[in-house]
Write a structure and sequence with these properties.
Layout: H1 5-8, H2 11-28, H3 41-55, H4 64-71, H5 78-94, H6 99-110, H7 113-116
Helix pairs in contact: 2-3, 2-5, 5-6
Amino acid sequence: MTEALFDKYGGFKFVSRLVLSFYDKVLDSDQVGDYFDDVDMPRLIDHQTKFVSSLLGGPVSYTDERLKRAHASLNLTSADFDEVQRLLRDTLSEHGIESQDIDIVMAEVEARRGSILADRAS
């Protein structure tokens, strides 16, 4: 059995540091930073730590329905999604995740595009 990326890279402690770095980039982004102006960031970072853990094969899972509900009112565009993907890829690389493992994580993110951009034509 193959070791989950979650375990390979150090579990929740690693993911927590990664998510904090990721949100530093997201909040500084001209493309998506404004989406977070009135957001309870500690709560969001907790949820994102669990979500990223799930992308790495960790002990948490998110349903497509949960992702749809969480993003439904945001009117996100494909350009917004692409920017977040770019920032996540950069963060994963900066935290020493191997390129083949980054590709696995990014494929998991891409697989959720339809749920996050539900009912959006852009």
